[in-house]
Amino acid sequence: MKKITIYSDGACSGNPGPGGWGAILVCENPHAEKELSGAEPDTTNNRMEISAVLESLRRLKEPCDVTVVTDSRYVVDAFAKGWLANWLKNGWRTASKQPVKNEDLWRELLSAIKPHRVSWQWVRGHNEHPMNERADRLAVEAREKIASSARMR
User: Taking the model in full, what pTM does it have?
Assistant: First the structure.
């Protein structure tokens, strides 16, 4: 089973506002890297954080042993603290009985991780972690590109 590390980040200007996501997929053996990014004109930071992971997993062509490295507590804690399991059990309601935000993306992410063995690692953002900083740059560039195209209309 191939070992893949996904470094991901999201960026938003305003929340909601124009947003971007960025990711770097690193294959361990043979060593290879692929940069990905995307953007939406009106979104939230959390949606971009989820999208970075989701779009990365969609690029994998076979079951892999995946480590997702992100500065998003929202993404990591949804798995590590069992939020997703509880949301599923409660019919996509939070502990306070409110609808789960970003349910559409969470459902897609749950489907995308099924063929893989996935572990989650949180890193502090903007703390000189080279790959996290690189993913952040990709997200910011994507956000700026979509924001500038919206301004030109």
Answer: 0.95
